Amino acid sequence: MHLADYAGLMRAGAYAGLSKLYEVNRKAGPIIEAACRAHGRRKFFDLARLSKAPIAAEAVRRIDVLFAIEREINGLAPQDRLRVRHERSRPLLIVELDAWLRERRTKLSKNNDTTKAINYRRSRWNAFTRFLDGLCFSNNAAERELRAVALGRRNSTFAGSDEGGRRAAASYTLIASGKLNDIDSQAWLADVLGRCRTTPQSAFSCLGIDALRTSLTRRKHSSPIQLTTRSGEFMRASRAARNVRTQIYEVVEGY
Fold it and tell me: I need a labelling partner for 23 at 20 to 30 A (CA). Which of 29, 97, 190, 209 fits?
């Protein structure tokens, strides 16, 4: 539903349920798959660690050279990353790794687990090489941010309504945005929720990330937020959150 009108690039794993999104005759236009390099590596890594498969271990070693290049260029300007990828990563990936995987595949039975790992990677070769056009190398950063969602998914059953779920999604976005901007998200949100009831709506801009960046950057929060199940305090906090919902959505849309 959320992708009904979207067309363009999408970073995703090889989940079969997404296959219809990549169809050329899709109404909104095709979505172009950009595969995560870490996902392709993981299948070889698991075989190397658990089964001591020599070909899988060598595949991990070769793929890790690409990861090492990405660590070197992390933080560089986009055009500089693109240049290094074409000068160093493309020969390693397109020429050496592709040829090596093809050659090794011929020496394995079709039911071998390493064969399946090779087929997984080679059947999505174009998707795995799209990072050479300037995309992120892997989806690890986004998945790390979603780990908190997975760990707390049982709590989501208490969202109470679709609107409660949307508020939770906005909160996750705010917390992640704070981290990406080197802001202590806990201190920032504690400050916002503590002041929103006494701040006129015309002055809500003073509660945004930019206004608090200097004072809250990596600050140790001396009195951590105390979570409570007492209904009275919960309702007061909910009303306060509703009062700043407009500001929350503005911040979300800005990042």
Answer: 97
